[in-house]
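OP here, attaching both records as promised.
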Amino acid sequence: MKYDDASWHYGGDFPKNLPNEAGATHIGMFLAWMLLNGFASEELVEDAEEEIGSLKKRSITGASFLIEVLDEKLTDNDFNDDGNAFAKAYYEGKDNDSRYIDDYFEAFGVNVKSLYEVPDTWENYEKLSTRVGERFSKWNSDGRPEYI
């Protein structure tokens, strides 16, 4: 199952003044949180050990990892079972109503039109990572419901 794909974002109404890579920033921040918190699949750990190390050292961002390692696509092959359960509940959401995107908008004060204008930096990742961690903790303590 594909959760997201950067190419879905840089077509259509994508801001012409931004590089295509800006369509990967919001996906990459979620991906980085998942990988840094131990939710990578065994296959991904085997195939991208060096790149995961670079992510941990913060010498690449989650968006760079998404583009360079995952061909711009975030799928269920990237996460272990716990990671997929959380990604489905939080990132995908019921009827594609993502709580993650809500948190992203709130963390950066953006909306659908300015979603892609958030710079892909570790400082911005930090603004969002606490919210994602809180969502995970609540989801976990609530018994891991199918959707948040």
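Record two, same layout:
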Amino acid sequence: MKVLEQIRKPSKLDQKIASESYNALASVIEQLNSEQPEIEIEETSEKIKIPLSALKLLGDILKAMGQGKLISLVPIATEVTTQAAAEILGCSRPHFVKLLEEGKIVFTKIGKHRRIKYDDIIKYRKQMKEYQKQNIIDIMNSDEETGLYDS
């Protein structure tokens, strides 16, 4: 995998090719019946079986690349540092450490260092989004009950 410093925005040519490839791949994926389709590399005539989920992921990558977006792949089982986890959540490292110490996110300690599984961070982020959504709904309902939305 590429190191973060080596990642660059796709060129205009790469965007065009990715966009065209995405359109072709998306239409082919819709027609597939197998969970392990076989693809062929035209230049070498080599055939490769690939999981359908990986082929769909390739489609997602091509779509994002065609839109000029940067791509980053992170294996789910990866453990990250507190700083990286805080950046994923968009909060400060001290706040994130507080969340860990309060037991809101599971972590392991290696010596003095805390490590957090990527999927646990994403799970916490989803929970927080649901909590925020519910709070907004509660506030709107409260405003309606008090007549703040009446004309």
